[in-house]
Records
---
Amino acid sequence: MYWKKFNVAGPTRLELATSGVTGRRSNQLNYDPARVSKIIHISRADSKRKMHLFFMTKLTYRLFRQTPAYFHPLMKIAGSFCLLFLFISFQNQLSGQVPSFRAEVQAVEVPVTVLDENGSTVPRLRMEDFRLFEDGVPQRIRDLSVDIHTVNVLLLLDLSRSVESQSKNIRRAAQDFVRQFGPKDRFAVIGFAHGMMPVQDWTSDKKRISKSIGKLETGTQTQLYDAVQTALQSQFKPMEGRKACVLITDGIDTSSERTLQEILRSVYRKEMCIYVISILKAVKGSMERYQRVAYVARIMEKIGETDYLENFFRKKEEEMNRLALYSGGRAFFLDQLSDMRSICSQIALELKSQYVLTYIPESVPPAASQQTIRLEYKPDPRYQLIYRKGYYRADTGIRR
C-alpha cells in the first residue's frame, strides 16, 4: 500500500504514482472526486485573475487621481497603457493554466501468482479474471501487469546444529539461486542459529554474495522467529523495487522470544513475501537420534503421547506454511535435499515474472489499522492463488 500527495490536473483523469517509496511504475487511473480522502489545497486561475484585476484597477486609479497636478497628462496616459500592457500579458499567461488541486489518494498493490492443478504457474493473466475483496467488500481492480522491476531478496539461512550435516547443501543452493537473477537485482545474506550472523549487506555483486555465503559458520540453538523479526525490521527499510525473503530452515525454533503472531504482523507492515524452503523431512531422521529429543519422546510416551514427535514436526510444517502464505509467498517441503536447487530455480522464476494487481479501496481505512484481502480466480476456482492476505495502514497516511 502506498500513500502519496499528488498535483492533479483536469476534472476526470488522475496520474497516480504507485511508486511512492519503492519507485515502481505509474498507472493512469480513473479519478472520482468523491474518493479523494483529503483535499489539501485548491487554487484556481479564475480567482488569480480576479485578484490581479483588482490590483491593476487600484494602480490605475491612483495614477489618474492621486498623482500631483504638475505631472503632464501625456505621462498619465503613457503610464496607463503600460499598466494595460502588463495586465493583458499576465492574463494571457494565466489563461493557459488548468485548474489544479492536490489530494491524498490510497493505492494498494497485491502481488499474485496463480498455480494450476499440477502446481505450474499460469501465464497471461487478465484483470477481468479476478474478484478482489477488502474486509469482505468488493473492490474494483484498476490494473494488472507483470512486475519486471528490481527484486530485493534477503537470504535467511538456518545454520543451527540440527541442519549442520546439510550446511554445505544449503550454501550451494543459495549460491545457485543468486546466479539466476539479473545484474540490477540486489541481495543481502544473514545466517542464524543462537543469534544473527549478518555477513553481506545489500549488493548486486554476485561474486561478493557467493563469497559471503561460503563464510557462514554453523551454531547451536535455533532462534528462528527472532531472526526473522530482526531481519524484517533492520533489512527491509524503504527501498526501490520488490521485497522478498527466502528462508531455508528446518522450521524448528528452540529459543526465540518472539512468536509466530508477531512475525505475521511485521510481514503485513513491511509488505514483503517470504518463500520458505523447509528441509525438516530430510533431517528429521537425524534429529530423532539426538539424545535430548529421544529423552523428550520417551517422557511423552509414558504419559500417553505416543505420536508426540510426529505431531510436533507436523505443527512446525504448518507454521512455516502459514508464514509463507500469509505474506504472499510459498512454502516448499523437501523430501530429498537434492531437490533444493530445482526449488530455488522455481522461486527465482516466480519472482521475476510475478503479476501485480492494483486497486483503490472503496472506503478509506482508519489510520493504524489492518485490512484483510481476499482474491478469487474466476476461470477455475480449483487453481491456487498465492497473494498477500492483507496490509497495514500506518498512522500518518503517507506510507513509510
---
Amino acid sequence: MLRTTTIQNVLSGRRAVQITIVAVSALWASSNLALAQVPDVEKHYTGQTIQFVVGAAADSSYMKYARFIGRHMVKYIPGNPSMSFKSMPGASSRKAAKWMYNSAKKDGLTIAAIRPGVIMEPLVGNAKDLDYDPKNFKYLGSAASSVFVCIARKDAPATSFSETLIRRMVMGASRFGGASRDTALALMQLTGAKFKLVQNYKSVGQAAQGLEHSEVHGICGLSWSTFRTERADLLKQKKINILVQFAPVGDPVLNKMGVPMVWDFVRTPDEKAAMELLVASQEFGRPYIAPPRVPRKQVIALRIAFERTMKDIDFRADVRKSNLPVSPTLGDDVQRLVTKLYKAPPRIVAKAKAAFKG
C-alpha cells in the first residue's frame, strides 16, 4: 500500500483496475460495442493491414508481447484486418513515440507498444525537444504492470539495500538513459543510496554483461518479469542479490523472498510523494497506444479488441508458455491515470524532476 495521500488517488489504479476488469468491463464493452461494430467501422478495417510499431528491439520482450497480442487482437476487430509488425528502437521508445505523435496516420491503422517511461518523460524527465504530449495519445490498454528491481553481485560492497545507504556501489546504466539510469538517480536523491552511476553501456543488456565481468557492482531499473525469464541463469546460480523493489506494489514472488519495497527507505512526506509520481507509470507497464486524433469509433473498436484479447484463452496460453505475465489495465483506465498524473502538484513534480536530474 502506498504511504502518502498527496497523490494517492492518482496511484490507486491497480486495485481499482482489478475491480474494473471484473465488475465494470462488461458494462463498458456493451455500451460501446454497437458503436465499435457499426458498418462504417467494419468497412474501414475490411481488407486493411494494421501496422503494429514496437518501440524496442526486434528480439525484445516488447516485441514478443506485441506479436502475441496482434495475432489474437485481429479476431476481435470488425472487418478482420491483418497485422504487420515493425521494430522501431531508439532512445528508450522516444523515437517511436515521436513518430506516432507526428508522422503516423490518424486513421486507426497504426498502433504502437512503447515503454512506460516515455509517457512520464515530459512531466518528470529532462530530455529536450520531445515534440509529443502523452496526454493526447489514445491508450488502448496495458498488458501488465511492472516491478523494477536493483540487483548486485554477491561480492559487491552492499548485500542489501540498507547497506547501500552507507557503502558506495558502482551501478551500471545505459548511456541513453531510461530506467537503468532514472531508477538509480531516484534512489540516490530520495533515499540517500550511495551509488556511483557509470553510463558506459549501449543497453541494459550490455550493463548486465558488465556486471558479470565485474565492471560494475549492480544495476537498477530492471523489469522483474523480463529479468527472471531472460536472465534466469543469474538467479539459479545465485550470482546476485536482489536489493529492492521499485514499484507501487510489490511482486508476490519477491515479497515472499523478503525483498524490501522502496517505501521502506524514502524519508520525508514530500520525498514519498515524489517517489510515488516516479513509480506511477509502472501501473501501466506494457502500454499500447494509437496516435492522437484517431476517430472515436476506431479507438473504441481497438480498445474493445484489446480487452477481449486479454481475456482470450488462446492468448493466455501463448503468453504463459513464454513466461510473460499478464495483469491488464483497460484503455480508459490508462487514459484517466495519465491525465491525473499530469495534474500532480507542481511542488511534487519539481521534486520528482530534480531526482531524475541527479
